[in-house]
Amino acid sequence: MSKGIDSGPAAGTAAAGAVAAATAGAATVAVDGRPGGAGVAAAGLSPGALALRRFRRDRVGMFSLGVVLFFLLVSFGAPLIARLYGKDPNTHYGQRIPGLLTPTGAPVLPNGGVSGEFWFGLEPGLGRDVFTQLLYGMRTSLVIAFAAVLLTTVIGMVVGVTVGYLSGLSDRLFVLVSNTLLAFPTLLLFIAMTPVIDSRLVEPGEEKSALVQFGTLILVLAAFGWVTLALLLRTLVRSLREREFVQAARAMGASRTRIIFRELLPNLWAPIIIHVTLAVPAYVTTEAALSFLGVGILEPIPDWGRMINRGAQLFYSVPTYMFWPGVTILVFVLAFNLLGDAVRDALDPRTGR
Description:
By secondary structure, this protein is mainly α. Helix content is 71%, strand content 1%.
């Protein structure tokens, strides 16, 4: 969990080293590990097609993609699955149906109450269905993670490309701001910033809606997550702006906007894609960590981090309750990290395993 906390807000920190080699070959295409234009001409394929072919040959990457797609389908199909299953995440079945929980709140059946009716058992005390809690908790984590990645990627692209191309005073100010943000202890800032943002969005004594809770976490994650991607893109743009094709566009009178969007950005998609694939699992673990610490998603919205927090309190009496969310996070994060490695290797085989 602590690893996710450290890498989540600066997900690009882990991605920076991974994308460095890929970005070095942005203007020089490599074909099955052999860089150069002659290989491309012989292959008769575009750089994107070559990367796709290399990715399809990566068995680990294809399997990881299948696992990630499975998680995405299950999360967005959670309402339909829950309806077919006949349960929902908020009903206290253990309190409504006699014989499911002991007087102390523990499930009567072994393994946390796992049965044909409750596939993953019951939550101790409240008696909620664990399976539907996992389904909807998956939606919570993925919605927050993807929204935060989208926001940080857009901000990082705009800031990094702009200051990298313009240089001068804007570049110096950016370096100062980015270094200042990276110097802060991110976990402590997350814990401190969350109630501050909440106080701006919710009146005292008013209950926080799901939209406010989601928005607060997304804003907190995005406040620091864009910095490393912007630093990486700034470095790449400073190199690309001296290339012949940029000099030619400038000599032909192209505007700065046209040069940035038509000449520079097409050469930056590889590091951006790698950043996204490596940032999503980092944000999932960070969101779960914040909820585990009590500053993330609150009851009654299902959340993986809060399930693990509850499971840790009851680990000695009902260890299986902590097992399900822990294994689910482990499998998803591992699959997405392996997918990110496969995408990196496909875009530049020189970094291959």
